[in-house]
Amino acid sequence: VPPKTKLSIKIPANKKLVVKLSNARSITPSVSPADTEYINQVSQEIQRIFSCPGYDDGSLAPIILRLAWHCCATYDKTNGSGGSNGATMRFVPEITDEGNTGLDIARGALEPIKQKFPKITYSDLWTLAGKLAIEAMGGPTITWKAGRVDCRDAKFVPQSGNLPFGDKDAHHVRSTFERMGFNDQEMVALLGAHALGRCHKRFSGWEGKWTSNPIRFSNDFYQVLLNEEWSLGTVPETGREQYYNQDKSLIMLNTDLELVRDSKFLMWVKAYASDESLFFHDFANAFSKLLELGIERDENYQVMPKKNY
């Protein structure tokens, strides 16, 4: 149960921080979009936690980006469920969804900021942190607005299995993103974030990084996908199948290779591999859209909560 979960992570000073993850609902709606001073203070605190010598490539930014991505990617346009509003990852079964394994590290890193700045909701904190993570790694500026509301209990948790999964085919990729309201171009742009971070066998069963610099936002994912030769292999400890380049320094998942097997996806892979500025532009638009999925705002840009939130 999240309130009883103790988590030990490395922080920049190389000490250990033990926190309790919370599923408590924020007392009030989040900070107003107009309160830029408060938002700037929260942003400064978030930016301080990205550098983390004891974790992976020295940065928590990729896993914090993954938290923001996954808390939005549950959205279903057919019934309006899911999305970042509500911060439903505080509850089972979303917190235990196979695709969310390991995200307690990101949530734990952000928890002290939530305690220091109680006016911001978890749903705003996680999405703001994702925006800032992209920018801290050299990516484009992401449009973000405050005002999300945390739901009070697990009643609003979307069904499990909404997240894209790495061993599936092009049909799975397309249907998953279409459920959220994205077209092929937006799908391929968003998947370019695989330039960042790593797979961990202890979390997903896969192991390795997609690009040589997994803490720099770039179009490297597309270039590597097109230019390397990929061979199917297995992670010895887990039995998971993944693709390796010739010297086994980089990996791809099956869903990544599906982007070059599908002709409509391949068109955008080639476009982004040859034009990084185009990728940055399209990614910024698609990610900003992702952050707002399922959100309705009033005339003051405050999020309108669902009934009984």
From TrEMBL:
SUPFAM superfamilies: Heme-dependent peroxidases (SSF48113). Belongs to the peroxidase family. Cytochrome c peroxidase subfamily. It comes from Spathaspora passalidarum (strain NRRL Y-27907 / 11-Y1). GO terms for molecular function: heme binding; metal ion binding; peroxidase activity. Its EC number is 1.11.1.-. Gene3D superfamilies: 1.10.520.10, Peroxidase, domain 2. InterPro entries: Ccp1-like, Haem_peroxidase, Haem_peroxidase_sf, Peroxidase_I, Peroxidases_AS, Peroxidases_heam-ligand_BS. Residues 57-309 form the Plant heme peroxidase family profile domain. Keywords: Heme, Iron, Metal-binding, Oxidoreductase, Peroxidase. It is an enzyme of class 1 (oxidoreductase). Destroys radicals which are normally produced within the cells and which are toxic to biological systems. GO terms for biological process: cellular response to oxidative stress; hydrogen peroxide catabolic process; response to reactive oxygen species. This is Peroxidase. Pfam families: peroxidase. It comes from the Eukaryota.
